[in-house]
Amino acid sequence: MNAWRRLFQFTRPHLWRMGATVGLSVLAAIFDAFAFSLLIPFLNALFGLPPIPVSGSLASRMLERSIGMFLDPADKMGSLQHVIWIILVVIVLKNVLQWLAGQFGAQLQEYVVRDLRDAVYKHLQRLPLAYYARNKAGQLIAKVLTDTDQTKSLATELITRGIQASATVVSYIALMFAISWQLSLMALVVVPVLTLALQPLLRRLRKGHKRLRNDYGEMMSVLQEVIGGVRLVKSFRAEPYEDRRFTSASHTYSSGMVKVSRAALASQPLSEVLGTIITVAVLWFGARQVLVDGVMQGGELIGFIAVVLRLMQPLKALTQLPAVAQGALAASERVFEVLDHPTEEALDRGTREVSGVSAGVAFERVGFSYGDGPVLEDITLTAAKGEVVALVGASGAGKSTLVDLIPRFNAPTSGRITLDGVDLADIKLPSLRALVGIVSQDTVLFNDTVTANIAYGVPGKYTREQVEHAAKMANAHAFIMQLPQGYDTVLGDRGMRLSGGQKQRLAIARALLIDPPILILDEATSALDTESERLVQEAIDRLLTGRTVFVIAHRLSTIQHAAQILVMERGRIVERGTHDELLARRGAYARLHALQFGMAPPVAVEEAAAGA
């Protein structure tokens, strides 16, 4: 019930639509029941009996007050014509009201799902990076798009079909009791029997649907990975391998769907068999009251049976509603799992605003772990304002993890990081990130114009002249002007129109435009050809001016002028100094330098290796 209650919170902005749906559905159901009650005077007049039953039942009194003026026992054909016209008018009114209720119900379900989808997307963007590390992209996409859409059936079943069926059932039951309370009690035995009979089935369906949503997310994850890495798949001729991965996930999902369908389809025959048994019992008992006891007229019994048969359809819909809703409930639980995860804003304990850097950034005995062993240990360093600090070392040494701590993508598990002497944890997260610019090897560009990609996230803040100036400083203006629409060219998915070097220069232009006092360059010149590297390096040299910079580099030629070079191994800083100092020390940095430039390794390194 928690999912129902939480989903209902999203209906609050649309309560008037819900009220209109409920009100119109109730009115339509009342008109529908009244139309069926008109069968009694029609049948009585047809069989030569008084149009209004003389049994004195509540139904006969209601008919006398509503249509008695139109009926003349002496004019049987005239009475029949009047009843037919009244039935037609009532049916038309009922259908108009039902159509209006459906319109408001459709609006309600779409707007509720829209608001839920928007809320999940906005919340997802504000979750910590650690959440993304623990969840597959395909699963997240499925939760935002597919699972939120699945919850639509909750609104559909509960608000539209459920309310309409409930109103119809209540109206019919009221009419049944008005005709004969004894027959009504017998007919309604089916409701508690069905409810008890379906409970084990509903529990099984809920578990099955939750498994299905996870299986669907796995299938989407494989699909998303293959589409994103199609070049790699083709280059390694891995199509058969990926075929097996996808078909395995697809078959698992289909098998689960078959099992769930088998259980879901059992609810309908169970409902129908029990309903038929009750209907037969009602027929036998009602016939006895007409033929033996004489307490009912034939028209009343036939009208009652017609209402019971008509009642079966909305009653079946109500009894099946919980079964149908199980898939949507399972999907909504996955959606609310996202919404329940605390955002970065909720976790942020910072209270201070900062507007710039006056002294620098300092790491004080910082350690970090993802929970399965230390990634960084005892990191101590100081990067003064305007200073370039380079990080080198083998892949997995902890370089990227270290710089991720500066914009607080992750938080240290020990020690602290300060900005001008203030702990980063005490600074408001938006204020801190406004000071940091990042240019990484894996440049992210969006399917938008060049201008929108350079001025990303702040449309309208910068003029075209400012954007073009940043592009010129990044050596990007020339190739941009060669694009079909220049700065208005749409770059395609992930900037597919551009080369690696061009993407890097746009990323540098993006950083130059926001002019951050702290800059992180994460292997920004890696995997570029010589000409592209030269252009990118020129742009980077302009970007470095006057900033506190942390550079992660595999190409040591790009960091020889850094104020500090830190050599990292297994999460620790093993050497630090300038380029010349570290070469003279003939240690780990000198070995990396010799290997990269094809020189003989230093004697000290060879001796250390021999001693080891």
Task: Provide structural commentary.
Among the domains are: 344 residues, ABC transporter type 1, transmembrane domain (ABC transporter transmembrane region fold); 33 residues, no CATH class. The chain is built from 25 helices and ten strands. α22 links the parallel β7 and β8. The protein is α/β, with parallel strands linked by helices. Strands 6-7-8-3-9-10 form a six-stranded mixed sheet. A four-stranded antiparallel sheet has the order 2-1-4-5, with no helix packed on it.
List keywords for this structure.
ABC transporter transmembrane region fold; six-stranded mixed beta sheet; 25 helices; alpha/beta; 612 residues
Strand order of the largest sheet: 6-7-8-3-9-10
Quote the distance from N terminus to C terminus.
65 Å
CATH domain fold name of the domain at 2-345: ABC transporter transmembrane region fold
The backbone outline, from C-alpha atoms, is elongated
- The CATH architecture term of the domain at 2-345 is Up-down Bundle
Radius of gyration: 37 Å
Structural class: alpha/beta
Per DSSP, what share of the residues sits in E-state strands of 2 or more residues?
Answer: 5-15%
Could you name the ranges where pLDDT drops below 50 across 5 or more consecutive residues? Answer: 604-612
CATH class of the domain at 2-345: Mainly Alpha
Q: How many helical elements?
A: 25
Overall number of strands = 10
Can you identify the CATH superfamily of the domain at 2-345? ABC transporter type 1, transmembrane domain
The helix content is 55-70%
Average pLDDT across residues?
78
Largest sheet: 6 strands, mixed
- The quaternary state of the protein chains shown equals single chain
